[in-house]
Amino acid sequence: MSKNRYVIGVDFGTDSVRTILMDAWEGEMLSSAVCLYERWSKGLYCDAGKSQFRQHPLDYIEGLTTSIKRCLKEVDVEVRKQVGAISMAMTGSTPIAVDVQGTPLALLEAFSDNPNAMFVLWKDHTAIREADEINAISKQEGMDYLKYVGGIYSSEWYWAKLLHMLRADKKIGEVCYTWVEHSDWMPFLLTGGNDARKIKRNACAAGHKALWSAAFGGLPAIDFFTSIDPVLGIYAERYGNKVYTTDKSAGYLCAEWAERLGLSTKVQVGIGAIDAHVGAVGGEIKPYYISKVIGTSTCDMMVVPGDQMEGLFVKGICGQVNDSIIPGMVGLEAGQSAFGDVYSWFKDLLLWPLAKKSFSDADTDRLYRELEAELLRELNDAASKLPLYIDAPFALDWFNGRRTPDADPTRKGLIGGLSLGTTAPDIFRALVESTCFGARAIVERIESEGVKVEGVQAIGGISNKSPFVMQLLADILNRPIHIAATEQVCALGACMFAAVVCNIYATVEEASVNMGSGVKEIVRPRSEYKELFDQRYAQYLHYGQLQQDNKK
Ligand SMILES: Nc1ncnc2c1ncn2[C@@H]1O[C@H](COP(=O)(O)OP(=O)(O)O)[C@@H](O)[C@H]1O
Ligand SMILES: O=C(CO)[C@@H](O)[C@@H](O)COP(=O)(O)O
After folding, report:
1. Which EC number(s) does UniProt give (predicted)?
2. Which ligand is nearest to the CA of 40?
3. Which of 205, 381, 376, 428 is nearest to 299 (CA)?
4. Which of 29, 111, 246, 425 is a plausible cystine mate for 273, CB 3.0–4.6 Å?
5. pLDDT at 524 over 90
6. For the chain, which domains are there?
């Protein structure tokens, strides 16, 4: 066995960074830490009304430093000497403009407060027009480069966001050498990178968000990019032609970061990947099982052996990419742009009077904080006791547009069937039900496109926080839901990759067998509600169709 024994896995979620330190030999978690992003939690640089969501690189740097140091503080000093690797999972597509040295523009004085110089978070939908332009070009003869990403290019993705930024802020274009995913920049930073031409791009984000495919020999032809806008051609040329899988090393921790973290320069830094993909590995994904990472949004992940996907193109999902989850298999991704975010929105709505600054005094502030922490739990509890009936309030879950099936960021949320007797728990139940209907639409799409779904695993924050949501999900999908035992699947998956990077295990599958924490429980569907939910699902589809028809 390798002399390395300990590994660190980091999960940069939407609202917080979660880090765990593991004994990879024993598959045991030794310590963990969670840090909120300071600027993000104050709402800085964001404007939800414009769907603008930006994160400052300093939030990531500070969160990473604090969370790793906290983990190390809790263990014996001998442990830190035997840390073999750090691997990281990040949201995506969450890219940023960097200069020729690979420095994010927001870290340069001239751009330090400019939201356009920051990471454009996955859920930012400011690039709808640019995504439409990419979709229009891809319909032209010889330009069909979207078949591996479900046939529609999303405004959440790399090229649409880059084009939008170059047009929206000319100053960015003057200094931006290349556009880099968060999942590629973090390993570059930790390994002391100072030349943007040497940034290693991960196969996962490249394939799912940037149209990279071995079948095209890399990116689509330069003509494709220049037909959209000549400036994109320049950035496509600079993208490079090589991608790396997450089980590989990006290099060693540089002296500056080793000192900052209190680790040695012998620690390897793994190639990054998108959080949900790493989470699926942490949740011990199996072929033909949908692994649902359920948090602020959902990502629905599957792995299928390559030979079974020959000639099969699943329409309306976020991609089918070789090696994107487990090296050697095709990774499929679908998802919902808002899941827990819909519940958070409702919570914030109810708390609006208390959050208003003009009312604030010490007591109101305390009450606000208490309710903030408790309200979702209370709503879960009350909603789970409500009787179910056919014409109860209903909702559409597209509060941040629709990611799958068939990406459409212009789709909107809806709440209907209200009366003077409708209560907050009634509306909460309708919202939860709509998010589960959204989940059902994805399963139905994958199956109708020819990929059999043999089981469903639930991982991520909500799978552990809300038995009520999990029960409704099981009822509405009419399938048992296997709930992962650990809440921190993305950080756990990152530890598994780290264990391969520093040669503790030879493959991700082997790491997963030795380090996985298994299933906590199986939530089974209640057959007595099947017919009712089938009828209400038909109603959900009907209102969704009406919205579509009204758009035309
Ligand atoms: N008791 C609860 N019931 C349902 N949803 C919850 C509950 N507590 C928190 N959430 C939701 O969980 C989401 C955060 O999920 P989590 O997996 O922890 O983070 P992330 O999505 O950033 O990785 C938030 O959107 C929040 O609304
Ligand atoms: O969009 C993707 C992956 O495509 C995710 O990174 C994004 O959904 C992250 O959401 P969470 O914060 O993990 O809910």
Report:
1. 2.7.1.16
2. 1
3. 205
4. 246
5. yes
6. 6-283 (3.30.420.40)
183: Cβ contacts below 8 Å, ≥ 6 apart: 88, 89, 90, 92, 94, 202, 204, 205, 272, 273, 274
Q: Give the pLDDT confidence score for residue 323 in this predicted structure.
A: 86
Categorize the per-residue pLDDT at 552 as very low, low, confident or very high, splitting at 50, 70 and 90. confident
90, 294, 343, 471, best to mutate for ligand 1 pocket (most atoms within 8 Å of CB)? 343
CA of 432 to the centre of ligand 1 (A): 12
For residue 525, the SS3 value is coil
pLDDT for position 31 = 98
Q: Binning pLDDT at 50, 70 and 90, where does residue 551 land? A: confident
94 lines ligand 2 (CB under 6 A): no
Point out the ligand 2 atom lying closest to the alpha carbon of residue 92. Answer: 6
Q: Do residues 333 and 300 lie in contact, with contact meaning Cβ atoms separated by under 8 Å?
A: yes
Rg (CA), the chain: 23
- Residue 83 phi/psi, 5-degree rounding, is -75, 125
CA 47 to mean position of chain CA atoms: 20
Give pTM, 2 decimals.
0.92
Q: Whose CA is nearest to atom 4 of ligand 2?
A: 92
For the Cβ of 491 lying below 6 angstroms from any atom of ligand 1, the answer is no
How far apart, in whole angstroms, are the C-alpha atoms of residue 430 and residue 424? Answer: 10
Q: Is the CB of residue 471 below 6 angstroms from any atom belonging to ligand 2?
A: no
Q: Is 93 in the pocket of ligand 1 (CB under 6 A)?
A: no
User: Residue 227 — pLDDT band, cuts 50, 70, 90?
Assistant: very high
**Does the CB atom of residue 295 touch ligand 1 within 6 A?**
yes
- CA end-to-end span of the chain: 63
User: How high is the ipTM of this complex?
Assistant: 0.95
**Average pLDDT over all residues of the chain:** 96
